[in-house]
Design brief:
With about 190 residues, the chain is mostly helical. It has helices at about 10-30, 35-70, 70-95, 100-130, 135-150, 165-185. The chain is elongated, with a radius of gyration of 16 Å.
Length: about 190
């Protein structure tokens, strides 16, 4: 499974926005796939990207929003709730038969939820972060997001949707997820 690296973006907003574009592409690729193997590959890549992306947002972006954005508590809480709902949906479809209509329906529901969440970030949260943080802060946050993603679980873990839970459970869950991913790729 190819891991996409988004190192071309200097600041955290551009970095995460680039990942949103990749998430959009992977949803389309998964839903439009004619062959089961193509759908499985795209879905597993999508699942991995969603898991690491949301972990980075929970560990880096939400605290930044809470700390400096006016009314940031409410914004961060709303995004965390959306992320929790998306993780729950992703877990529910993770083991479905990918050729079934039920999978397509559930994945379409997840797509709508995730893209609405991304739109909220792109139109509400990210511009406010740019307003209150300088370029150096946003660049440092991009580095922090990359580090968070490098140790993040590669599968959804809805019980670890708070920053403290991710910090405590994340490395262990990441180790197990990455071992499962490696075993699947060789077997």
């Amino acid at each position: 499974m190819a891991e996409h690296v988004f190192n071309t973006h200097d600041d955290v907003v551009a970095f995460l926005h680039g990942q949103h574009n990749e998430i959009r592409r992977l949803f389309a690729e998964t839903l439009d796939a004619a062959e089961k193997q193509t759908r499985e590959t795209a879905f597993h890549e999508l699942r991995r990207l969603l898991a690491v992306h949301e972990t980075a947002e929970e560990l880096v972006i939400r605290p930044m929003t809470r700390r400096k954005v006016p009314f940031g508590e409410g914004i961060a809480d709303a995004r965390l709730k959306e992320e929790k709902n998306a993780k729950d949906l992703l877990v529910s479809i993770e083991h479905m038969d990918m050729d079934s209509g039920k999978f397509v329906t559930a994945l379409s529901e997840l797509q709508a939820a995730v893209l609405t969440h991304a739109e909220q970030e792109e139109t509400e949260e990210f511009p406010k972060l740019r307003d209150v943080f300088d370029d150096d802060d946003l660049k440092r946050a991009a580095t922090m997001a990359r580090v968070a993603e490098s140790i993040a679980p590669t599968r959804p873990h809805p019980s670890a949707n708070l920053a403290t839970a991710n910090l405590m459970l994340g490395p262990f869950a990441s180790m197990l997820d990455r071992a499962r991913d490696a075993m699947k790729s060789i077997g």
